C-alpha cells in the first residue's frame, strides 16, 4: 500500500469513529471501534495532548536521519509519520466540541479562522477590451472569425465553426485570480490548465508557421502535435518550444526561478543569451533568473503537476516556497515574524480544497513553528 493511501485511509477511519460519537451508530469495524474507545477515554486524550506539548518531531527526525542512511527508507519513515499525524489532526482539529467534553474544565481551546479556496473562476479579456467573468455557470460567446466560445464549470473552449485563416491575429487574455484555477482549450485543441494568480495571452485563431502564447504565472500544457507548426510559450525569462507534449511551467514574477517540468515529449528552453536546454521526460529545468544558471534534474513529476488534479504536494520544499503557493491558492497574505523559519523543509500531500488550517496544523506537528490566521493574513512565528 502506498503511503498516501495510508494517509487517506487514516482520515476515513477517524471520520467514521467521530461520526459514531455524533450519531450513536454501531456499524463500525474493529479499527474504527478502537479509535472510538480511545476518544471516549478522557485520561487517554489528556495524556496524548500533554505528550504532544513536549514532543519534538524535529529532534526525532534528526535521530532517525542519522540512523537511516538510505534516502528511500527515510522517505518511508516521513510518510508514515505524516499518516499518523493526519489521524491526530482530525481528532483534535475537526471535532473540538467532542474533545472539549472529555478535557478538564480548566482547558482553553482557541479556534482559529479557517479559509477555503473558491475554485473554478477566471476573467476573459477580449481584444476589444470587454471583460467577461467566468465561473461555473454555462455561457456561449461569439468571436470574430467563425469562432464559438463555450464556458462552464469545466472551463473555456474555443471551437472553430469551420477551418479558416485569420487575416489579422486577434489576441484574448485569460486571467485567473488568486484563489482560483481554470481550464482553457485553445482553437487548435491544446489544453491549458491555469493555476492561481496566472494570466495567458493567446490568439483566438492560430495562423502562420508557429503557435505562440504568452504566460505569466503557472500552467500545465497538453499540446496538440503539429510538426509543421511548433508551439511556443513565451515568458519574461525565456521561451519554451514544443511540438506535442505535456509539461508544466511555473514562472511567477515574484519568484527567483522559472521551473519547467516535462511529463512526456520533448521541450527546448531558450533564454536568448545562454545555449538552449532540451528536456527529456521526467526531467525538470530550474532557471535562476539572477545569474542565468540552468539546472536540470530528474524528478517525480507528480509533485509538480498534482495541482491540476486538485492536490497540493510538496517534496522537501522550503516553508518560504510552500507559503507562496498557499498565499496564491487561498488568497491570503504571509508575514514571517522570524525570517529563519523560511528555510524549514516539509513534505506532504493534501486535498487542494481543504481549509488552510489543515495544512498549517500539519506543519506545526513536531516543529517549533506556530501559525496565526487573522483577517486573511497568516502570521508565522516560532513556537513557545
From TrEMBL:
Gene3D superfamilies: 2.60.120.1440, 3.55.50.30. InterPro entries: FecR (IPR006860), FecR_C (IPR032508), Ferrdict_sens_TM (IPR012373). Pfam families: FecR, FecR_C. The chain crosses the membrane at residues 76-96. Keywords: Membrane, Transmembrane, Transmembrane helix. Residues 184-268 form the FecR protein domain. Residues 311-380 form the Protein FecR C-terminal domain. PANTHER family: PERIPLASMIC SIGNAL SENSOR AND SIGMA FACTOR ACTIVATOR FECR-RELATED (PTHR30273), PROTEIN FECR (PTHR30273:SF2). This is DUF4974 domain-containing protein. It comes from Butyricimonas virosa.
Amino acid at each position: 500500500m502506498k503511503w498516501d493511501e495510508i494517509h487517506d485511509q487514516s482520515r476515513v477511519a477517524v471520520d467514521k469513529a467521530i461520526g459514531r460519537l455524533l450519531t450513536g451508530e454501531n456499524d463500525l469495524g474493529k479499527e474504527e471501534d478502537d479509535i472510538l474507545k480511545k476518544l471516549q477515554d478522557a485520561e487517554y486524550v489528556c495524556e496524548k495532548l500533554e505528550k504532544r506539548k513536549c514532543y519534538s518531531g524535529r529532534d526525532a527526525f534528526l535521530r532517525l536521519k542519522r540512523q537511516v542512511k538510505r534516502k528511500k527508507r527515510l522517505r518511508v519513515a516521513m510518510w508514515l509519520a505524516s499518516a499518523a499525524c493526519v489521524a491526530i489532526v482530525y481528532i483534535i482539529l475537526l471535532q473540538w466540541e467532542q474533545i472539549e467534553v472529555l478535557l478538564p474544565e480548566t482547558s482553553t481551546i482557541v479556534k482559529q479562522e479557517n479559509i477555503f479556496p473558491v475554485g473554478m473562476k477566471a476573467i476573459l479579456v477580449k481584444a476589444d477590451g470587454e471583460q467577461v467573468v467566468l465561473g461555473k455557470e454555462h455561457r456561449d460567446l461569439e468571436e470574430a472569425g467563425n469562432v464559438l466560445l463555450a464556458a462552464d464549470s469545466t472551463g473555456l473552449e474555443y471551437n472553430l465553426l469551420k477551418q479558416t485563416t485569420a487575416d489579422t491575429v486577434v489576441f484574448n487574455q485569460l486571467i485567473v485570480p488568486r484563489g482560483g484555477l481554470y481550464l482553457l482549450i485553445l482553437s487548435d485543441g491544446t489544453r491549458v490548465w491555469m493555476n492561481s494568480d496566472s494570466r495567458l495571452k493567446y490568439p483566438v485563431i492560430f495562423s502562420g508557421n508557429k503557435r505562440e502564447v504568452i504566460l505569466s504565472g503557472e500552467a500545465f500544457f497538453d499540446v496538440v502535435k503539429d510538426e509543421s507548426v511548433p508551439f511556443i510559450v513565451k515568458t519574461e525569462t525565456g521561451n519554451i518550444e514544443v511540438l506535442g507534449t505535456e509539461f508544466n511551467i511555473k514562472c511567477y514574477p515574484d519568484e527567483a526561478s522559472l521551473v519547467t517540468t516535462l511529463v512526456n515529449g520533448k521541450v527546448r528552453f531558450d533564454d536568448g543569451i545562454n545555449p538552449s536546454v532540451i528536456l527529456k521526460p521526467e526531467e525538470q529545468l530550474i532557471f535562476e533568473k539572477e545569474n542565468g544558471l540552468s539546472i536540470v534534474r530528474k524528478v517525480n513529476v507528480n509533485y509538480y503537476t498534482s495541482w491540476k488534479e486538485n492536490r497540493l504536494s510538496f517534496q522537501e520544499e522550503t516553508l518560504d516556497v510552500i507559503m507562496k503557493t498557499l498565499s496564491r491558492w487561498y488568497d491570503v497574505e504571509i508575514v514571517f515574524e522570524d525570517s529563519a523559519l523560511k528555510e524549514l523543509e516539509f513534505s506532504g500531500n493534501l486535498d487542494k480544497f481543504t481549509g488552510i488550517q489543515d495544512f498549517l496544523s500539519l506543519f506545526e506537528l513536531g516543529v517549533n513553528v506556530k501559525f496565526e490566521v487573522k483577517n486573511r493574513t497568516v502570521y508565522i512565528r516560532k513556537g513557545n
